[in-house]
Specification:
By secondary structure, this protein is of the alpha+beta class. The protein contains four helices and four strands. Strand 3 and strand 4 (126-132) form a beta hairpin.
Length: 233
């Protein structure tokens, strides 16, 4: 009985742990999906807005006073003092002068990303607009940091919820196993006395039958019943 009870308790613990792990996995999946959707929506919205601003700046922006986070480069124009190093991209400038087709690219430099558009303006001047994505990238990092914090909080909540749900869900099973074990114990105890009496009675009858010289089939039947009663004990 002790081994059986230990096995039942281990099964109940495993069921509770399984519920807690499943709850944590569901919360992790939900946070990941929400984070992925939020990041996709934010990235697309930021990219669309930045490209619109960049194209407008390349087409109409003032070379001496470009929009915030934007630098404009053109032949004969003095770039701003805070312009990032490595710009303009001369290969794009030459290509646009040759083909008159606008060129857009993303440049990774100095730990950040720049969106670059080079085009010919209506007045025939080739202008290159550069936008620094530093703040947009910081927003994305903040988003994932917030999602990471939410994930940790979610896992803690999942652990607590899993324990509670595990107890609520497994308690009926544990109670049923306990009742079953108690019933078997009680039934075994209650049946032991009458079985012992039957065995004893069968032994007495078998001896009396042998002493009185009863036919062999009757003696054998009493002996078999006595053996069955002993086995049942």
């Amino acid at each position: 009985m002790n081994a059986s009870a230990s096995g039942e308790r281990a099964a109940v613990r495993r069921a509770r742990l399984r519920i807690a792990v499943l709850t944590g996995a569901i919360i992790t999946l939900l946070v990941t999906v929400v984070g992925g959707v939020a990041d996709t929506v934010m990235t697309r919205a930021q990219s669309d807005q930045v490209w619109r601003e960049l194209r407008y700046g390349a087409e109409r922006g003032d070379l001496t006073s470009p929009p915030v986070c934007t630098w404009l480069f053109a032949r004969g124009a003095t770039p701003l003092a805070n312009a990032p190093a490595g710009f303009p991209v001369e290969s794009d400038m030459r290509r646009v002068r040759r083909t008159h087709d606008a060129v857009e690219r993303t440049v990774r430099r100095d730990g950040t990303q720049y969106l670059v558009r080079t085009q010919v303006r209506a007045d025939g001047k080739v202008v290159q607009a550069v936008f620094d994505l530093r703040f947009q990238l910081a927003d994305r990092r903040h988003l994932w940091f917030a999602l990471g914090v939410a994930e940790v909080v979610g896992l803690l909540a999942a652990a607590a919820t899993g324990v509670v749900l595990g107890r609520l869900a497994v308690s009926p099973l544990a109670e049923a196993l306990t009742r079953q074990r108690r019933f078997v114990t009680d039934a075994s105890h209650e049946l032991r006395t009458p079985v012992t009496q039957v065995y004893t009675r069968a032994q007495v009858l078998a001896r009396q039958a042998a002493a009185q010289g009863m036919p062999a089939p009757h003696r054998d039947g009493l002996t078999r019943r006595g053996r069955l009663g002993r086995a049942a004990r």
